[in-house]
Design brief:
The complex is a heterodimer of chains A (125) and B (200). Chain A is mainly beta and 125 residues long. Chain A contains two helices and five strands. Chain A has a five-stranded antiparallel beta sheet. Chain B folds into two domains: 30 residues, no CATH class; 157 residues, Nitrile hydratase alpha /Thiocyanate hydrolase gamma (Nitrile Hydratase, Chain A). In chain B, the strands form two sheets. Chain B has a two-stranded parallel ribbon with strand order 1-4. A two-stranded parallel sheet of chain B has the order 2-3. Classes of the chains: A mainly beta (125), B mainly alpha (200). At the A-B interface, strand 2 and strand 4 of A face strand 3 of B. Strand 4 of chain A pairs parallel with strand 3 of chain B, so a sheet runs across the interface. Chain B: GO terms for molecular function: catalytic activity; transition metal ion binding. Chain B: Keywords: Metal-binding.
């Protein structure tokens, strides 16, 4: 890969184009999901907004927050298609094997990191 | 003794700014306006939003449904800012905000984040041991209250709408806003009613 040409960088390139067409959401509030047990950081340079402590964890969709340009592309100034962002609720004690029953963690996670709970875990690519 | 060397990061920032200006991407005026807007933002905005929610059910509903709109109605320009989400505490449920990945913070309505919010210690512990963290802050939740840690990982910014403390009946919006501290808007503290305030 050649070094990026600084002259090619413009103010527009990293900005999401204003778009209003809706992006269909695969999941709905109340759905049980699992966060993909994937570790792109082992495969090379990346920028991901899915905390490591939630990979492979099961949770529940609390809310659909809307669609946002994928930060994994934005970070590298690539075209960033909008992805649906969810608020996902997790029970806290199973994550750390400590804590108090009933305490929870609520986290924003993009759709491409989610799969339905109850299916066999997908192998990381 | 010679003056301490200028940090390399400062020189890099100046080079970056010069390059952005040379390409017409930002102007000096735009930078000054952004700086002024950032300086105007303070936790007093968030505190007033909360006080209003305690007094006005319609405002409360609107604010919980659309924090961005509530901020706009406070006179905050939210154009281009991340959307604002409002986390409503309820009897038995307390919210605590952290950004484990970096230090996302609702600057539009809370101003600059405090140093501890950005510290490695807070970011790693709040999500794993929220009860230990609250205890160190001296924050005592009512018996049986569940904690919901909100890890601010992506495109929203989150503020807490805490419960109105007992003993504040009949208080004005100004009086109520005065007890809603920055820390209460993050969830590490609770707004204190008159009894606690008198005891201090």
């Amino acid at each position: 890969m050649s070094a990026p040409d600084p002259g090619a960088v413009t103010g527009e390139s990293a900005q999401p184009e204003p778009r209003t067409e809706p992006v269909a959401a695969r999941f709905a509030a109340g759905d049980r999901i699992r966060v993909r047990d994937d570790w792109p950081e082992r495969r090379g340079r990346c920028h991901i907004r899915t905390p490591h402590y939630l990979r492979g964890r099961e949770g529940r969709v609390e809310a659909v927050l809307g669609a946002f340009p994928n930060p994994e592309d934005l970070a590298f100034d690539r075209p960033a298609p909008r992805r649906v962002l969810y608020h996902i609720l997790f029970d806290q004690p199973p994550i750390w094997h400590e804590g108090r029953e009933g305490d929870t963690v609520l986290v924003e996670i993009f759709e491409h990191w989610l799969e339905p709970a109850g299916l066999p875990a997908q192998e990381a690519a | 003794m010679s003056a301490p060397a200028r940090p390399e990061s400062l020189a890099r920032l100046e080079k970056l700014l010069a390059a952005l200006k040379a390409r017409g991407i930002v102007t000096e005026e735009e930078l000054a306006e952004m700086q002024a807007r950032t300086d105007r933002a303070s936790p007093e905005i968030g505190a007033r939003m909360v006080a209003r929610a305690w007094l006005d059910p319609d405002w409360h509903r609107m604010m919980v449904a659309n924090g961005t709109e509530a901020a706009e109605r406070m006179g905050v320009s939210m154009a281009g800012a991340p959307p604002l989400g409002v986390l409503e505490d309820r009897p038995g449920l307390h919210h605590l905000v952290v950004c484990t990945l970096c230090s996302c913070y609702p600057r539009a309505v809370l101003g600059y984040p405090p140093g501890w919010y950005k510290s490695f210690e807070y970011r790693s512990r709040a999500v794993r041991d929220p009860r230990g963290v609250l205890a160190e802050w001296g924050t005592v939740l009512p018996e049986g209250t569940k904690i919901r840690v909100v890890d601010s990982t992506a495109d929203y910014r989150w503020m807490v709408l805490p419960l109105r403390p007992a003993g504040t009946e009949g208080w004005s919006e100004d009086q109520l806003a005065a007890i809603v501290t920055r820390d209460a808007l993050v969830g590490v503290a609770l707004p204190q009613g008159p009894v606690a305030a008198a005891a201090e």
